[in-house]
User: Fold these one by one.
Assistant:
Number 1:
Amino acid sequence: MFKHMRVGFVLTIILSILALGSACSKQATNDAAPDTNSTASTTGKSYASKGDEGTVTGAIAYNGAPAAPKKIDTSADPVCGQTNPNLVTEDTIVKDGKLANAFVYIKDGATADGTKVTEYTFPTPTEAVTLDQKGCHYVPHVLGLQANQKLRITNSDPTQHNIHPTPKSNPEWNQTQSNGAAPIEKTFGRPEVLIPVKCNQHPWMKSYVGVLKHPFYAVSAEDGTFTIKGVPPGTYTVAAWHEKGGPNGTEKTMQVTVPANGSGKADFAFGGAPTASSRLSGLQMMPALEMPMIGRH
Ligand SMILES: [Cu+2]
């Protein structure tokens, strides 16, 4: 009996250490994925094309086996189940080891003449970027736009949605959009990577909007590739963000040089070795263990 208690005590200690490790790694992820350019300035040097722009291209790999998409319980709105009976989770879409829906952008760095990319001002595109609600999910799942560029939200479903972005640097709002209603147009004035968007009607609905001061961003396609076009020659910190891995997602960065009229390569990898928290949830599945310390750290 005493021996059993000792085994239990040792297990509790081990699990506490694992839980602590999990909390620490979450903190590290938070630090690694801050909102960028949150102190946007309206002053700056107006960007003028020299005609020698290049690209940043690459592919986003996913190491290891991703969790299989889960079927979504649409019982909160039967119309959703009828419209889209195959709704599944979209947080990690991997095909042939490549990750879709990573947001890739120039985070920092300078053009060849030494001007920091964040010091330039760029004209606001006149065309809107569309976020559709179709089959009770957001299409696309991740999108980018420039500060003050119009986001046009459409409802293609025979049911009501309620769009609710939850930014940190921009004002929060939420708005109902019934079936057949006119598009809603909104702007975000401040750069913010990325703003989560949810639906107050359908708890599974989620999308992410990256707002930048400049036009140098892209979202990885289903084959994991992306191209950021029109990049002036220079050396930059390129960041790739994906929604999993922490409360604010995971961001990875690398230095990339773009030559005049050329291309800089930025290949990233997500996934990889199991984290402390996934090891912990593996242990929680073991029926013989009692773990009173879990969740108390
Ligand atoms: Cu909805």
Note: Helices lie at 2-32, 78-83, 276-284.
Number 2:
Amino acid sequence: MPRFEIDLKPLQHITVDAIGKPGQRVFYLQGWREADPKPVTVIIEKIQLQALAEGVDQLFAKLDHQKPEQTIPDVKIDPEKMRISPPVDPLFRAGELGLGYDAETSLIVVLAREVLMEGDDPQQAAEVRFWCSSAQLRCLADWGRQVIERGRPLCPLCGQPMDPEGHFCPKKNGHKH
Ligand SMILES: [Zn+2]
């Protein structure tokens, strides 16, 4: 049995944010259940967020193909609403983030499973499931990309975000600097 399982269903709001200095930021996934003022928060890795955003794109592309009648809404992101503020009180660090689609409710579940220490029983990993509407998920993925970008310094020449090892700058004909 997992240590605990939480289903946020219905889910009022879901977001991600990063707190800390560039390069040392900690990423959080946070959701609110309807009519519950206390959010549920887990720590995630930047690479998990990146993979989640890509997974969302793939899922929507697949759904668009299979169920063209169910359109993915255009969303407008309000950064004020998406930002989380400390103190955050994470339940665990996620070792795994998954995505699943429930055809009956048309909800998409974002599943966070607790990271395991050596010697832990894999059956005991706690789980949080955020049951998202398409609009909530679209918002989450688009905002997640912005959060990832935010941590990178901007190139003084072209204004695009740079990776720590430099980037291929269009102002320098694609040379790294
Ligand atoms: Zn540049």
Note: Helices lie at 46-66, 79-82, 134-150.
